[in-house]
Amino acid sequence: MTDDRPIAEMLPEIERHVELGRTVYLKWTCPACGERAIANDPNRYCTQGYLHEEKKDGSPCGFLYRGDLFGYLVLGPMIPFSFQ
Ligand SMILES: [Zn+2]
After folding, report:
1. CA of 47 to the centre of ligand 1 (A)
2. Residue-wise DSSP of 14-49
């Protein structure tokens, strides 16, 4: 189970992360092999679909995911908590 959501719904919050200098990688579940896959290129949504190149055991998958449901991973500077 994942908390994936439609990409259109997430794009505004992803753009906000990018504006704040963070790096965002889209993730999806590959329908062919069921593994969780992560995009190679950060900070972009590729409308051509996402290729699951390699499975966790190193064997090739090659399934092109053209679905709508994604999650994402955020890396980079977080806003420090401030006391006022
Ligand atoms: Zn796969």
Report:
1. 18
2. HHHHHHTT-EEEEEEE-TTT--EEE-SSSS---TT-
pLDDT tens readout for residues 51-66: 999 999 999 999 999 9
CA–centroid distance, 29 to ligand 1, in Å, is 8
pLDDT at residue 1 is higher than 70: no
> What pTM was computed for the model?
0.86
- Ligand 1 centre from 50 Cα, in Å? 10
Mark the residues whose beta carbon lies below 5 A from ion ligand 1.
30, 32-33, 52, 61, 63
Domain residues of the chain, as ranges?
5-75
* pLDDT tens, position by position, 33-52: 999 999 999 999 999 999 99
